[in-house]
Amino acid sequence: MTTIDSQKDYYAALNVSLNADDDEIKQAYREKAREYHPDSGHGDAERFREVQEAYEVLRDEVLRRAYDRQREKRGLSEDALVGLALSQSRTEAYPLNEPQVFYVLVDIAPHTEEQKEVTRQHLNVALVVDCSTSMSGVRMQNIKIAATDLIESLDSHDRLALVAFSDRAEVLASTHLMDNPRIFKSALAALIPSGGTEIYQGLLAGLEEVRRYASPEMVNHVILLTDGRTYGDEMRALTEARRAAAEGIGISAFGIGEDWNDEFLDDLARSAGGVSRYIRVPSDVRAALKRQIQGLSTMLLQNVKLEVNVAPYVHIQAVYRAAPYLEILEHSENNVIALGNVMADEPVSVVLEIVVAQAVTGERRIARLDMVGEPITASEPIRLRQDVTVTFTLEPKEESAPTNLLNRLARLSVFSLQEKAWRALGVGDVHQATTYLEYAATRLFDMGHRDLGQAAMLEVSRLMHGGDPTKEGRKKLRYGTRSLTSPVR
Amino acid sequence: MTQKANKVVCPSCGAENLPGTLFCIQCGTYLPSGGPLRTEPLPEQEDGRPARPRQEGQEGEEAWALNIEVEVLNTGRKVLLSADREILVGRLDAAHGVFPELDMTTDGGLEQGVSRRHARIYTREGTCFVEDLDSTNGTFLNEERITPYLPYAFRDGDLLMFGTMRSKVHIYPNH
After folding, report:
1. Cβ-defined contact of B22 to A103 (cutoff 8 Å)
2. A283-313 b/e (C-beta count within 10 Å ≥ 16 → b)
3. How far apart are CA A207 and CA A210, in angstroms?
4. Do residues B3 and A99 lie in contact, with contact meaning Cβ atoms separated by under 8 Å?
């Protein structure tokens, strides 16, 4: 018996084109089978089985057509930069007279293996560094090391600016092409900590530098490094971030230590399609910056949006980002979800929680998804469409939710629990917050994340004794559970 | 039809979840997919017949009795196990009272990262599940690492990997 697995690329296994005819497939199979046969010199049992499986499907007209259809559904056959693939918790259901939940995992990933090695994008980046007094010592030393690394990793076509800020901002090196990195290295020496933290000033100066050469063919981005709270200028900073987003300039924010405001940095970065990250020990700055630059230089799409059109009896209950990090996403009234950027080496996954209020027997399209994004390399936005269909029948088949969907939901559920806890705490409901944190701790221990589980229990015991949670614990949990995108160890 | 009967009640915290919910909204507990309404109509809807009691369902139970054959790919060893009881996968350690039904000691389990109590396999209503027992090196279903303590359904011909020990499972009806 032959089963079809649409997750596998049978065409790639035989190294034939999508429209190869029977003879070509047979020929390719003979060659491959000879090459990998366990009895041959460099046999490979695993590959041999793959080749056989691929041949069994592709040689059969009916199976091949069924496989092609499944591939098409997964968005594999379209000739686009990225593919849009769906996995549903259920494809058949009993037509209940009351609301029931369906989960849909949406994967936005670069298409084929070849396209993963995309051409490196040109960067136009401003590095904005907090130079307040609290940054002196180890923090500043590490930032200088990280910045030196960054300067060396950039390409001669990239542009960089270096901005320092405390109570006011100072452009240490204005935007230059990287053909002369020495300018930047000497500017780093001028990073001398003194004064307070006013993020707005630094952000504004950084954005001005990026604007000077901003162009749609480049990745225009501000990287903000801070360790402190900003006072009174949050609103102005957020407005500025939103303006930047409209101009196609992204922002990412790195918080070092415990004293910065995670909600504010999150909002700030999110407003401009970026993300905030927590740097617990200063020596992690280097790796974090490196990864950030790596990500930016492989950017495929920016300003990505998911438009969800639902049937009248259907509504979206919640939307989460499940990769590359976890996030509770907002969906506007018309169900448009802003997803920011898609990088070639970091597929984006989204989980939709869809509620069908009342079902009628038959095959129903409960939602239509359109992904719209702006490729860096082309002027026309790309649009991909997928439908979510469910067959409502009195005898739904036995099916279990796909593994990848379950994995992602398990982590999202823990992440949501601790987010709910902080939200409850924000409105003064200590009891509810404690309950949520306890549940989160249980799940974390279950999943083998002992470290995070212990951190949650620590905060629980502080709350139960009438104390406040620690800033460190809060950040550790928020940012720790946020990066639970793959199983432990 | 009562509305309440369709709600999925969390076994851990008692919260009521909408049908189809996979993780309890209140406490995050995994609610085995679907609940009762997926395959069987509610008792009220079953034209007068009482809900099927378990002990009388011998016919049904019989139809679901399965044998699972695990083929260890590196040694070619095939082990046929009856799935009417839970199958513990791991390495024998008499001193600590670990007696797995599927003992991978002789397949080089230690070297390949198989924990003493690595995973369990069981069937429920004709579906086979594998659950990782928080093993050190993890369990993989078709190359994807599975989350510990969550049951994952698998099918005939699926690849299961315990640590780095690769195996293929075959499911046969038990006659």
Report:
1. yes
2. ebbbebbeebbebbbbbbbbbbbbebebeee
3. 5
4. no
CATH, domain A82-112+300-401, list 3.40.1390.30, 3.30.9.100, 3.40.30.10, 2.60.40.3670: 2.60.40.3670
The answer to whether residues B137 and B83 belong to one domain is: yes
Tens digit of pLDDT for each residue in A247-291?
A: 889 999 999 988 888 989 999 998 888 889 999 888 899 999 998
pLDDT digits (tens, 9 = 90+) for A442-486: 989 888 888 999 999 999 999 988 888 888 899 999 999 998 876
Quick: pLDDT tens for A55-110: 988 888 888 888 877 766 554 444 567 888 899 999 999 999 899 999 999 999 88
Residues from chain B that touch A45, judged by Cβ atoms under 8 A, are 73
CA distance B34 to chain A (A): 8
Collapse the DSSP code of A307 into the 3-class scheme (helix H, G, I; strand E, B; otherwise coil) and give the result: strand
Q: Which CATH architecture has domain A123-297?
A: 3-Layer(aba) Sandwich (3.40)
The domain at A10-73 falls in which architecture?
Orthogonal Bundle (1.10)
Contact A199, A226 (CB under 8 A): yes
Shortest alpha-carbon distance between residue A441 and chain B (Å): 10
Residue B152 to chain A, least CA–CA distance (Å):
7
Out of B21, B142, B149, whose CB is closest to A101? Answer: B21
Residue ranges, comma separated, of all CATH 1.10.287.110 domains in chain A are 10-73
Which chain B residues contact residue A439 at CB under 8 A? Answer: 13, 26-28
Residue B38: which of A94, A439, A447 has the nearest Cβ? A94
Q: Residue A88's closest CA among A98, A68, A74, A75?
A: A74
Burial class (CB in 10 A: 0-12, 13-18, 19+), A372: middle
How far is Cα A386 from Cα A257, in angstroms, rounded to an integer?
A: 43
Q: Are A127 and A147 in contact (CB under 8 A)?
A: yes
Q: Do A487 and B138 touch (CB under 8 A)?
A: yes
The tokens for B141 are 């279903």
How many structural domains compose chain B?
2
Q: Which of A102, A396, A414 sits opposite B39 (nearest CB)?
A: A396
